[in-house]
Design brief:
By secondary structure, the protein is α/β, with parallel strands linked by helices. The protein has 2 domains: about 110 residues, Tetratricopeptide repeat domain (Serine Threonine Protein Phosphatase 5, Tetratricopeptide repeat, Alpha Horseshoe); about 200 residues, Rossmann fold, CATH 3.40.50. It is about 40% helix and about 25% strand. It contains 13 helices and 11 strands. α4 runs antiparallel to α5. It is elongated, with a radius of gyration of 21 Å. The two termini are about 40 Å apart. The N terminus and C terminus are likely disordered.
């Protein structure tokens, strides 16, 4: 939902309010406050939400919505205080208040997303994920990865792992080229959507920030539009290097951060962009041979194309032992 305040357009997603306050009167006031915000009366919405929070001071979603309206009204200090209150109530940060606090800085510094936020986001998004991403935003990540693999002469893989498999869009695209296909995702509801497609041999609920090394080795590891929710890539790239067979391929997409703007940056969309140079250094340190970077539009966002990178990297058959090679990075 988009409303206008102080000459600026603001988005206030209704999904945050699937969590009731538990108090009928407070919920009713919050509903009225939402209606006022939709009618562009942000000050009245703030006042009414503050009344609701006096009744239920431990309602994290209410404080988060209040912070959004306070930010929209230009009261950045009050918004920061409200987001801090969200974190006090919910340290796991299912609503991503820590990211909003970081975005309020002149230069965001957070290098990772709270796992609970990512899980909550995609559990809520699962039912409408494909209609939104594919039909409305023109998402092309899986097709771009498969095209890059075919152009590189790689058309068949015995064991494939789809990291952050979501509803299975990447799985559908790679299935004709895969012998065994596994998928990992943090969201149980996204996994349910993927399971219904019937293209995976195994699906498992995993937090990609906490992957452990196992005995299995893969010929191809995929991550389509996944690392934008990871942030710093040292650990996941190291894990992938240690989990690939020699000569195996790591293929993924990224939102591109222009060189000179740092290694990675949290954007207002609450997704990360990564610089090509940063990714190239990590891949080299982890024992991957010369990676291939291709530029393409990943999807549309707010009517604008999102510039992205499609990356293929082959694990060297006999990788050099470096101080920060793949296995050491993965166990760090």
């Amino acid at each position: 939902m988009t409303v206008t305040g102080s000459g600026v357009r603001h988005r206030f997603p209704m999904s945050l309010f699937v969590f009731s306050s538990g108090d009928l009167i407070a919920d009713r006031r919050a509903d009225y406050a939402q209606a006022l915000a939709t009618a562009d009366d942000i000050p009245a919405a703030i006042d009414l939400m503050q009344q609701a929070l006096q009744l239920v001071p431990g309602w994290a979603a209410g404080w988060f919505r209040l912070a959004e309206w306070q930010e929209a009204s230009g009261d950045a200090a009050a918004a920061r205080a409200s987001w801090r209150r969200v974190l006090e109530i919910d340290p796991a940060d299912r609503l991503g208040a820590g990211l909003r606090l970081d975005l309020a800085r002149a230069v965001p510094v957070a290098e990772a997303m709270p796992a609970a936020f990512v899980e909550t986001l995609f559990d809520q998004y699962a039912a409408r994920f494909e209609a939104s991403l594919v039909d409305q935003l023109g998402y092309q990540g899986p097709a771009q990865i498969v095209e890059a693999l075919l152009l590189a002469g790689r058309s068949r893989f015995d064991r494939v792992l789809d990291l952050g498999c979501g509803t299975g869009l990447m799985g559908q695209a790679i299935r004709p080229h895969a012998g065994w296909l596994e998928g990992y995702d943090i969201s149980a509801r996204m996994l349910a959507q993927a399971r219904a497609k019937g293209v995976y041999d195994l699906l498992d609920k995993r937090d990609l920030s906490r992957l452990e090394l196992g005995g299995a080795r893969f010929d191809l590891i995929l991550a389509a539009d996944v690392f934008i929710y990871v942030g710093a890539l040292e650990q996941i790239v190291g894990w992938a290097a240690a989990s690939l067979s020699p000569g195996g391929v790591l293929a993924f997409t990224l939102e591109e951060l222009p060189e000179g703007e740092g290694d990675l940056r949290l954007r207002p969309s609450r997704r990360y962009a990564h610089a090509e140079g940063y990714v190239a250094r990590l891949l080299d340190q982890a024992g991957f041979a010369a990676p291939r970077f291709s530029r393409a539009t990943l999807r549309m966002d707010a009517g604008q194309p999102v510039a992205g990178l499609s990356v293929l990297a082959v694990r060297a058959a006999t990788p050099l032992r470096r101080e920060t090679d793949g296995e050491e990075m993965a166990s760090a």
